[in-house]
Design a protein that fits this description.
411 residues; alpha+beta; 2 domains; six-stranded mixed barrel; two-stranded antiparallel ribbon; 14 helices; 57% helix; elongated
Length: 411
């Protein structure tokens, strides 16, 4: 018996018992669907972190008061609060001097963040994000302008009261008029709008376009020069990335007079460090979630095995007739294995389709992103067919081992 003939008989048997076949498929369908939905949410989250959180900028990393490792636990964060000093404008100036003579560090830019009430006319935006940046941050972190311009070095040095708005903030403050050149109140102080940022979208359902940005030195002149800031640093080339981070670490340890045995009292945050923390936190959850949902696949395999055993019993006479007219034991084995694998593959395909629809529904109705890598689709079909193969071996072997004469006597 050829494989094609075995598949033809398998499809005929499945279609001949539609209700039973559907009930048999339910275990595999739900097993594959739940695994794929869980995987799509996890993969979507990972891609989201890479794109919108870990994507600091081109060849860029960040110097901050805390390291990524400090956020691994409450105890580590409290210890870092006691140990670590603020990163300030003097550190930024020292890094900019280092960059001027370094072959690995291209530039260093400062930034700080707070919240503010922003007002224009009768419209007030309460407690929106206030960003304070140096002009060169636009190049390091790929800040794009939709209208007007970003801060200039002259704005920064002169501590000018100029503002750069997020697209959503601009739309709410100026629904009918162009914002460029208008004056707004930021916590009661007058700023002139010089630019509007390109739309960034959302992160976990929260808008990234509701902000107002001002020059860093203007912010510090209002809130105090010793205020904590963070510093974004870019390397000259991708190959110099690690060496640039080492240069920054050496400079900061020297400035803070740390001995070789003392730990860093600052943090250097890279996309790799963010991804490492993400993997530490969510890696175990990912394995556990996939493991738990995979149990339903095992249950589906058991259901297939039971139904195939029932099928062997019901079709004993048919098996006897086939063997009496020349079918060999391996033909019977192939027939029942083909039926079992076909059932599982159909269930896997339906499960993937349901998972895709559920993933799209989750992405539409919630801020949780989803992604369905083709590799996992192939893996799901492979696993489902493997479940069918394993589940069908014993029933197929039982069918192939029947005595033809005894089978023909069966009623």
């Amino acid at each position: 018996m050829s494989l094609l003939e075995a598949l033809r008989i398998a499809f005929g048997s499945i279609l001949g018992n539609k209700l039973r076949s559907f009930l048999t498929l339910l275990g595999v369908i739900f097993g594959v669907a739940t695994v794929i939905v869980v995987v799509s949410i996890i993969e979507g989250f990972n891609a989201y972190v890479d794109d919108k959180i870990a994507n600091i900028g081109t060849n860029a990393f960040s110097l901050q008061k805390y390291s990524i490792e400090d956020f691994a636990s409450v105890e580590a964060l409290n210890a870092a609060r006691r140990r670590n000093k603020d990163v300030n404008i003097d550190d930024l100036e020292a890094l900019q001097e280092l960059a001027a003579g370094s072959r690995t560090i291209r530039d260093a830019a400062g930034k700080a963040a707070s919240v503010a009430d922003v007002k224009f006319g009768n419209e007030t935006l309460q407690k929106i994000q206030l960003k304070a940046n140096t002009p060169n941050l636009a190049e390091i972190e790929n800040i794009e302008t939709a209208d007007g311009r970003y801060f200039s070095a002259a704005d920064e040095e002169a501590r000018r009261y100029v503002a750069f708005l997020g697209s959503e903030a601009a739309a709410k403050l100026f629904p009918n008029d162009p914002p460029i050149g208008k004056t707004i109140k930021v916590d009661g102080r007058t700023f002139q709008v010089i630019g509007v940022g390109k739309e960034l979208g959302t992160a976990f359902g929260q808008t990234r376009d509701m902000y107002v940005a001002i020059p860093l030195r203007t912010f510090l002149s209002i809130n105090g020069l010793r205020r904590n800031i963070s510093i974004s640093i870019s390397s000259t080339t991708p190959e110099a990335y690690v060496e640039a981070a080492d240069e920054v670490r050496t400079l900061m340890r020297t400035r803070r007079k740390l001995s070789p045995s003392e730990a860093d009292n600052f943090g250097i945050v890279t996309p790799g460090a963010i991804n490492k923390l993400r993997d530490q936190i969510f890696g175990t959850i990912q394995i556990a979630a996939i493991g738990v949902t995979s149990i339903s696949l095992v249950v589906g395999g058991i259901v297939i095995m039971n139904i195939m055993l029932v099928s062997v019993t019901e079709r004993t006479k048919e098996i006897g007739i086939r063997m009496s007219i020349g079918a060999r034991r391996r033909d019977i084995l192939k027939q029942f294995l083909a039926e079992s694998v076909t059932l599982s593959l159909i269930g896997g395909a339906i499960g993937i389709a349901i998972a895709f629809l559920l993933s799209q529904l989750v992405a539409t109705l919630t801020p949780i992103p989803t992604a369905l890598p083709i590799g996992w689709v192939i893996a799901a079909l492979t696993v489902s067919s493997g479940v069918g193969l394993v589940s069908g071996v014993y029933p197929a072997w039982t069918a192939a081992g029947l005595d033809p004469i005894e089978a023909l006597r069966s009623e």
